[in-house]
Amino acid sequence: MSVRKHKLESMTGGSGVHVFLVLWKAASAVEAYAEKSVSELEMCGSDFAVLEALLHKGPLPVNEIGKKVLLTSGSMTVAVDRLETKGLVERRAHGTDRRARIVHLTKAGRKVITHAYADQAADIERLASDSLTKEERKTLIHLLKKIGYEAAGTLERGEEESTE
Predict the structure, then answer these.
(1) Is the Cα torsion angle 119, 120, 121, 126 positive or negative in sign?
(2) C-alpha to C-alpha distance for 22 and 10, rounded to whole angstroms
């Protein structure tokens, strides 16, 4: 098989590269769609994610929020600083660990994220309903979890092998 033909086939017909590109482009488009409703709040996606995590998980240490919303510790600190300046969150001392600070939603923060989350959830539901049947949603979720768990497991096994 010629190199040119191989390259063309890898970009179509379900090759791993094609799956990755389609997944990446779809995720980018859906993320942009989701951020559209957040942008009206004059807040970036990472700030929204922090507030949403606190809404659904309750008060959390900064490092735990970072793990949930996939932000580095530096990015988390900046996001919490921004939200604290806006009066949407506050840092409080940990009950037993004097080194740790716990991030809490303020009353204003709870009000903002409750309404914003409801609006975004409605927007995302509309997108999903307009583009996928219930059965297609179930299939998509199953397939995305399957590839995600495989990728995570492969990375984890690779890290274990490199430390042996």
Answers:
(1) positive
(2) 12
Rounded CA separation 64/60 (Å): 6
* Strand order, beta sheet including 89-93: 60-61, 101-105, 89-93
Structure tokens, 89: 């969150």
Domain range for 120: 34-131
Is residue 13 a part of any domain in this protein?
A: no
Please, what are the averages of pLDDT over each run of 10 residues along the chain (164 residues)? 54 80 94 83 87 96 92 91 96 85 96 92 94 96 95 83 60
Cβ atoms of 84 and 91 within 8 Å: the answer is yes
Q: Dmax over Cα atoms in the chain, in whole Å?
A: 66
Q: Are 103 and 51 members of one domain? A: yes
